[in-house]
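Supplementary notes (optional reading)

For those who missed the lab, this is the record we used. Protein: Flavin-containing monooxygenase. Length: 417 residues.
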Amino acid sequence: MLERIEGKHAHDPLFDRIMNKSPRFVSVPGPVIVGAGPSGLAVAACLRQKGVLSMVLERFSCIASLWQSKAYDRLRLHLPKQFCELPLMGFPGEFPTYPTKQQFIHYLESYAQKFEIGPRFNETVTHAEYDKATGFWRVKTVGKKTEETVYRCRWLVVATGENAEAVVPEIDGMGEFGGDIKHTSSYKSGEEFKGKKVLVVGCGNSGMEVCLDLCDHSAKPSLVVRHTLHVLPREMLGKSTFGLSMWLLKWLPLRLVDRFLLAVSRLTLGDTARLGLDRPELGPLELKNLSGKTPVLDVGTLAKIKSGDIKICPGIKKLKRHTVEFIEGKTENFDAIILATGYKSNERDMFSEIDGFPTKPFPNGWKGECGLYAVGFTKRGILGASVDAKRIAEDIERCRNEEAALCDRSVLIYREC
């Protein structure tokens, strides 16, 4: 058969063109991991430690593309470094408590180098399908030059995370606005907005910090706040708020810890409702558990709101050439709009068929069916992804060992016969 194909390939130009357009098939003995961000790297490292080699597919040209190409310059980790470590390797001792963007990227690159993780870059997964007849996954990718590859693997790990695609809301009149409109994924620094009036839409950690960055670069920011939110100091009683919360939860009920956090916040930050930042009825930790909504950890923005350097605005009703009409009826001119409206996962869009994708909540959301796993989708940040990465590696190792033992028994029985 091979000789016939080779002969056809040598003498038939039409066959040659057809064969060149056909996808390349690659059989992977270990798991295929989709995504080379922190979650994907963590799974690959945990697998390697157990002697299981994996193949990492990444649609961009670098690891941690969100951090390398879509994060603003002043970004730091919002949590202390000990809560953002990946499995098996800590941060360098000389790194500060809250590493910078560049320091975190350096850490991830060193991590990939240490565990010999070499992703296949510029490969976008377009289709994943489980073949029940063979018990293998078929993962189809498209490369930078539109070349197609089909990977055949026993285990598939989806590690594209919850921040794969920017969320861009539809605002009435968006196409008519004469100023610049950009998502925070393309925002780098407030330097380009010096002296300009900028409206920031979205009041999460990114929106708050972008407003602060704009202030530091002599811009005039306003912040759209449509919903209630919790703002907490980044540190309490000399400790990180996150670390203190985790420690208190070991001894106290969640709602009691929430009361403590809110009491200390009121003492240190004052009544945020007076600034136009109403708090939700549920406490910050309870709300996080139920909805995944993260409280804002203040890094200096609140002081700028109190001083009037940052103005709070209601929701947007409509945009005109350089004018924003708010839902309360007032209008105001702005030079630019920055959308700090967050990100969303894309696993459902990327996989046209995703049999058995995990749907269980934390802490059981890492395992699906048919050798399918997910990491970084439980709204628990890097810490939660690291825990899931360890579980996935342990489960794949167990499955591999069981299948190997079954194969050995089958061979033994065959020989005895």
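If you only remember one thing from this example: Residues 17-164+345-416 form a domain with the FAD/NAD(P)-binding domain fold (CATH 3.50.50.60).
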